[in-house]
TrEMBL record:
GO molecular function, one term: ATP binding
Keyword terms: ATP-binding, Cell membrane, Ion transport, Iron, Iron transport, Membrane, Nucleotide-binding, Transport
Keyword ATP-binding: yes
Protein name (record): ATP-binding protein
Compartments in which it is found: Cell membrane
Major subcellular location class: membrane
Lipid bilayer topology: Peripheral membrane protein
Pfam family of the protein (one): AAA_21
Any one of the GO BP annotations: double-strand break repair
Gene Ontology terms: cellular component: plasma membrane
Residue ranges of every copy of the AAA+ ATPase domain listed in the record: 48-226
Length: 259
């Protein structure tokens, strides 16, 4: 019999309702990541829909914020699911998502620790580990997973198609870096299936106007100092892409000329 802890919970997403900063838990305001202007004493973020998408320029703290949320959910800050410690942490130590999580408080209804934290940088490390474990401990009598036999984008989509039916919280840090434009459309379809199931919460950071246009998602723009609701048409990413599509040659000529 499945333990009570592992039984599905008959409540719809979102499960993580709110996070906020507890200033008393910060030992050094000058140290990263607490020196980020975003992380003022009044920082908080609420989740009122199953899918939340965060957009913003590099350096504003998107990845660090997602790392902190992932650690709160019980995942490794370098990527993976609960209980996975399979990734080289040498690059992740500088980002200190775990340090951020120590100063964050969270409100859950209920607490969910199933799911996955996806990072393009660590996907192949995680996939290699899962392939090795499937070879070592096969189950069900069928062929084991073989994610690495596919291209990066194909392996990524297959990886999550096998997991999207499960209840949990799924955190994606710029998944478009692993996907061609056509594969991004496939990823949108995957998001729709997860959304329709009703028990998957998605928190995603992206630079892709295609992904940030997902209907019914909460779209937040991360500026230097705060998170604010926005529409895809109001983002710099969309405006830049629209200018490019209207006149590709002229756009590129102007960009490289510094105009």
């Amino acid at each position: 019999m499945a333990s009570r802890r592992n039984r599905p919970i008959n409540l719809p997403a979102p499960y993580l309702k709110r996070i906020w900063l507890e200033p008393s838990r910060i030992t050094d305001r000058e140290a990263y990541p607490f020196c980020l202007p975003l992380l003022g004493d009044d920082f908080e973020l609420s989740f009122d829909r199953a899918i939340t998408i965060i957009v913003g320029e590099n350096g504003t703290g998107k990845s660090t914020l997602l790392e902190g949320i992932a650690v709160l959910a019980g995942y490794d800050e370098a990527g993976g699911g609960k209980g996975y410690m399979t990734v080289d942490h040498s690059w992740a130590l500088e980002k200190m998502g775990g340090q951020l999580s120590n100063a964050l408080r969270a409100s859950w209804l209920p607490k969910i620790t199933n799911g996955w934290f996806f990072r393009a940088e660590s996907f192949f490390s995680v996939a290699r580990y899962l392939d090795e474990m499937a070879q070592k401990y096969p189950s069900g009598g069928g062929p084991p997973p073989d994610f690495l036999s596919h291209s990066h984008g194909e392996g990524f989509l297959r990886f999550f198609e096998e997991r999207c039916q499960r209840q949990g919280i799924f955190i994606f840090d710029e998944p478009e870096s692993a996907l061609s434009p056509a594969r991004q459309i496939e990823f949108l379809k995957l998001m729709r299936r997860m959304d329709e199931i009703g028990h998957c919460q998605i928190i995603m950071a992206t630079h892709s106007p295609v992904l940030m246009a997902y209907p019914s998602a909460t779209l937040l723009r991360l500026t230097k100092y705060r998170l604010e609701p926005t529409k895809v048409e109001e983002t710099d990413h969309f405006r830049l892409m629209r200018e490019f599509c209207e006149d590709p040659a002229g756009f590129v000529e102007g960009a490289i000329a510094g105009e």
